[in-house]
Amino acid sequence: MHPEWGAGPYTVDTFDANGGFVSFKPNPEWWGNAPLLDSVTFTAMEPDAAVNAFKNGEIDMVGANTNDRLKQVQDVEDTTVRRAQQTAKTILMVDADKPQFEDIDVRKAFFLGVNIDQQKQIAWNGLGYDEPVAGSLNLYSFQDGYEDSFATAGLKHDVDAAKKLLDDAGWTEGEDGIREKDGEKLSVTFPVFGEDPTLEALAKSLQAQQKEIGIDLKIDVRASADFSNDLTSKNWDVVSLRFTDSDPGVGGPSTGPAFLMLKA
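Structure (tokenized):
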């Protein structure tokens, strides 16, 4: 942790990576308006634990980005619901170093098999929310100059085109619908980190979409604490990564609303 590398109204006070805790204090070098709070603390929790802590008055803010969590906290006394489009994106990555994905056409087929509209419906189920897809890694739909660059490039959900790519790459469909080549199944591992029901539902949807084109996507549920090590060591074949842009003027897991529960 190097607080001297950052700038802003707050600076790091205490930090415990193992305990999942960080606190901030006013930055004496900050040149703008004085911060309104004497301190700000963040504690790492699994989503369900965070919701319970909010309901019990142990924390003052919690994310509630699923229908179930929203219902649990929106009626808590002195709670305000705030919702906005996040300056964040979720991307799917495949590891081209893995033998299953060495062929670029297999990688293309994988992404043609992804139904983004279905993923959006699952992510925002029951939230009464919608927004355009994140078709750009540089601009958001609310910014001047935005356009869906993926659509312009001809990238879309196309099962038939995906199947043809796999056929031409020599992956033939077996009796169980999963493709094979040289005696090997076209099977890939997709980790899900944590106990978030929405993430699990999204993974199962992706699994079904890939099975439709003949790819066996195996879901592997892991602890949230494993994310950093597993990501950097490439302990995956396919992985979902969400990243946030800290500056709204600079483009960078997931288009979607930020639901924050704030206690007055």
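The longest strand covers residues 10-16. The two ends are 32 Å apart (CA to CA).
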